[in-house]
Specification:
The chain is of the alpha+beta class and about 180 residues long. The N and C termini lie far apart (about 60 Å). The chain has six helices and eight strands, in the order ααβααββββαβββα. Helix content is about 45%, strand content about 35%.
């Protein structure tokens, strides 16, 4: 009888520890809808500088219809790329649920995947939900009730993504 009580206490303690781990402060802060407010990527910033330098050099060539035509084409393409990046940033949402599902809304549609949280990492695995797909790892650099900063490394390209909860962004007087 004593052994049964001790076993029950151990099982109950294990359940409490597991429940506490599942509802960690990071987890409770993460479980909401987040909007991307800033994306930092040094490789992309460097490419933008190089394109601008190329456009500047083309603008130095005077009275050359071919250079003018090339400059206009490159400028139009560059403007289109920058606008698409801004549209993607302004319209990307992540919603992390307590059930371990993340919904990603972007201009191209809504997608979902399974995720797990192992502080400081978020592991997203599309194959767990769909049978196939990508696996991604995000490092949580900072999380509070009004900011989530993630680092994503894709091969040798690193992005820092800053997000804010929709509730905070929609609050009266919000400056984000």
């Amino acid at each position: 009888m004593n052994r049964r009580i001790i076993n029950s206490i151990f099982v109950f303690s294990g359940i409490l520890i597991f429940a506490a781990a599942c509802h960690s402060p990071v987890s409770s802060l993460l479980h909401q809808q987040w909007k991307t407010i800033k994306v930092e990527n040094q490789k992309l910033q460097q490419q933008n500088k190089e394109i601008k330098a190329f456009l500047d050099s083309l603008s130095l060539v005077h009275n050359d219809p071919q250079a003018d035509s090339l400059r206009r084409q490159v400028q139009a393409t560059y403007d289109q790329i920058v606008a698409e990046q801004a549209r993607a940033q302004d319209n990307t949402l992540l919603e992390f649920t307590a059930a371990g599902i993340v919904y990603m809304s972007s201009p191209s549609g809504v997608d979902s995947a399974a995720y797990s949280l192992e502080d400081p990492y978020i592991y997203i695995d599309e194959s767990k939900l769909k049978g196939e797909g990508e696996k991604m790892t995000f490092e949580i650099l900072h999380i509070t009730s009004d900011t989530l900063r993630l680092q994503f490394v894709d091969q040798k390209d690193t992005s820092i993504i800053t997000l804010a909860p929709i509730e905070v962004l929609n609050a009266p007087g919000s400056k984000k």
